[in-house]
Design brief:
Layout (H helix, E strand, L loop, with lengths): L1 H18 L2 E2 L5 E7 L2 E5 L4 E6 L3 E8 L2 E5 L6 E6 L2 E5 L2 E7 L3 E8 L1 E6 L2 E7 L2 E6 L2 E8 L13 E8 H9 L5 E4 L2 H4 L2 E7 L3 H11 L3 E6 L2 E5 L2
Helix pairs in contact: 2-4
Length: 229
């Protein structure tokens, strides 16, 4: 039984080590050259797999979030995929935020075409984003209200807009040496809107929990439990 539990815990990390061409640790990294004309900033806990040919570059986000710069130097089609959705670009700047149960793509420059398999989902222009979650699996296009909130992790912030506490925990987990767990499913599904510093993941989690009447207990240095008061 113990061996089985250890295998279940370690398998995701081992899988990423095998599949990932680029991987960040508990802090973000900037300016990674993915391919000619394709540069990316990686959020903490992000893993990318890259496949290249003479005509195409395919970047698969295995875990986490990234901000991409695709310049005119890239004479190949560039596809970024996450959770079976593909963003196809030519020259642009855009963010792909891949969370627990949600996916968002926001365009700061140029344009992006969103597809799932052979079905077009949306054409995104500057200042617009596409987002889907468990309540809206098809996804929806909306205008970006605050450009600074796009990939705010690049400046050390988590800008949450109607995310669940489970979503918040998945983002903070990438920076925390242990694991965040919930004592109840109702706590995990509480909706959160706010701005939190990412350099103190437990402090951010405590702020989120306290605002909703919960508390965070660190039973060990590697486990943070969100529980009722």
């Amino acid at each position: 039984m113990i061996i089985g539990l250890l295998a279940a815990f370690l398998y995701p990390a081992i899988r990423l080590e095998i599949l990932a061409d680029f991987k960040s640790g508990r802090t973000m990294i900037s300016g990674i050259d993915i391919a000619a004309g394709v540069v990316a900033d990686l959020d903490a806990g992000t893993a990318l797999a890259v496949d290249q040919s003479k005509v195409q570059v395919t970047v698969k986000i295995l875990e986490g979030s990234a901000y991409f710069y695709v310049t005119s130097e890239s004479d190949r089609t560039v596809d970024v995929t996450a959770d079976n959705v593909t963003a196809r670009v030519t020259g642009t700047e855009f963010a792909v935020e891949n969370g627990a149960g949600w996916l968002a793509v926001a365009v700061n420059e140029g344009s992006v075409t969103m597809r799932r398999d052979d079905v077009k989902l949306a054409d995104l222009k500057v200042g617009f984003m596409w987002r889907r979650d468990e309540t809206n699996p098809v996804g929806q296009v909306s205008r970006i209200q605050n450009a600074d909130a796009v990939a705010a992790w690049r400046s050390g912030w988590l800008d949450a807009e109607d995310l669940t506490m489970r979503d918040i925990a998945s983002i903070l987990d990438r920076r925390y040496a242990g694991k965040i767990i919930f004592g109840s499913s109702s706590a995990a599904e509480k909706r959160v809107t706010g701005r939190y510093r990412l350099d103190d993941p437990i402090g951010a989690l405590q702020s989120v929990a306290a605002a909703h009447g919960y508390r965070v207990v660190q039973a060990t240095p590697w486990i943070a439990l969100v529980t009722s008061p």
